[in-house]
Amino acid sequence: MAAVIQLVSGANIAPAAPTAPAVTSPAPELPPPAPRGPAWLRASGPNPRAQAAARQLVAALAGLLALVALWSALAAGTRLPGPGATWVSAVELVSDPFYRNSPNDQGIGWNVLASLRRVALGFGAAALVGIPLGFVIGRFRFLGDAAGPVISLLRPVSPLAWLPIGLLLFRSAEPSAIFAIFICSIWPMIVNTASGVQQVPREYLDVARVLRLSEWTVFRRILLPASLPQVLTGVRLSVGIAWLVIVAAEMLTGGVGIGFWVWDEWNNLNVEHILIAIFVIGAVGLLLEQALLLLARRLP
Amino acid sequence: MNESKFLSVERVDVIFPTPKGPLTVLEGASFEVARGEVVALIGHSGCGKSTLLNVIAGLHTASRGGVILEGREVTAPGPDRAMVFQTHALLPWLSAYDNVRLAVDRVFGKTKSKAERHDWTLQHLELVHMAHAAERKPAEISGGMRQRVGIARALAMQPKVLLMDEPFGALDALTRAQLQDALLELHASLGMTVILVTHDVDEAVLLSDKVVMLTNGPHAHVGEVMPVPLARPRERLALAEDAAFTHARAELLRFLHAAHPARAA
Fold first, then answer.
1. Which residues of chain A lie closer than 8 angstroms to B107, CB-CB?
2. What CATH number corresponds to the domain at position B189?
3. Which of A166, A282, B22, B74 has the most CB atoms within 10 Å of its CB?
4. Count of domains in chain A?
5. Within-domain flag for B242
6. ω before B233 within 30° of 0 (cis)?
7. In a 3-state reduction of DSSP, which class is residue A212?
8. Could you tell me if B156 lies within 8 Å of chain A, comparing CB atoms?
């Protein structure tokens, strides 16, 4: 309290007094809590949900604005293109996303689609193998114990380490990139599916035992619906990883694709295009994630 | 066959392996159940009464001894010993109807036509007064209603014996009383054999023909078997001041709190 009084009287020239006494002294009358958020938002109406949404939007815009500001500051002192130059370049690029001049010079749309195609193939194969594998690993304890160490050993391996193995096996760049995606995106689906199956309440399985349900019926009527939310979490994480991996893999394998495109523009010293590619990669990843979240919410 | 030996539990030992060595939960537990009888298994928590019920269900294997139902030893779970779980164990993604229908399809898939199985499912939902909620999911109905559907599912299997593991333990007192009355009503019309695990003295006396009292674990065994000499049909309000009811209740309380008091929790 003493410090407060000194502050109010304007006599506080010395550094602020320790605040400990203020804690032990009786609490002063508090003013009514100030409404949160800027005044123009508070006045916008009595609908609290609209207010919350508006507040979130403002925060999101503020964050993006901060990013652009930081970027401008960084660009001012270096050879990094600023937001303005990048914007001009982006407008030009996006106005014709599907041109084809040569195999190595295609519109950004083709590159993104080529990458998405590889992700779909690699990730799709991983889902076809990984989800059933997760089910048996989660269902049968021996298999789970057997698979545990193998998964723990292989899961942390970088996607790029798998690429030479893919080249060796397939003797071609295209399937190697898909192989790298397959092997990197399979783990979250195996692990999440298995853990979802292991967490199925014991009573449900007791019901199955009392009814003497066949293993197939147990899977279809109990395990699958009970573990579906966690399976989808695995799928979502896997798609994210697949999209991370593709950029790195394409840088090495070449061809058409957003990862190759980034590397190609680096060779062309077109840094604006690299920055645009970073935004596009981020946006596509965000859309993939949101689409899967939407799917998960749609489920019963 | 001797009717008093419809089902017999014979010198059942259950030994759990623990990090500190084997733990003998039950030792030499024996009792008999006659056809159509309601038997309550009572004891303090942790005495192994649910474990014993699981042994009868076949969900747990006895380390020694066993269970004989109609002259055959119980070796695995089966729909002839339908279970009503304390946590109802209804599948949350299925409607009340579909939960019952799953059991009906499994048990009568080969002996009843599709239409008959549909009728059978609805009949059993009606039996527990849940036909109006047939299309609702477990999350959309109350705890008491869920337990009614759980009972309907078990009865729809047409079991030889209905096993109930503290079926009303998670319900509030008023709902519990309603469900107890519902069980009395079901027994009056169907005459099914019931083994009911409970720690509620009033529930044991109200519902059962015989109370099997377990001593405290570990090494729990059947301490006493008390017949409940109350005529059926039973009526909750009339029994409240019935001398035989009060006496049976007092006997049980004496067993639980004087002869075998619970260890400090």
1. 211
2. 3.40.50.300
3. A166
4. 1
5. yes
6. yes
7. coil
8. no
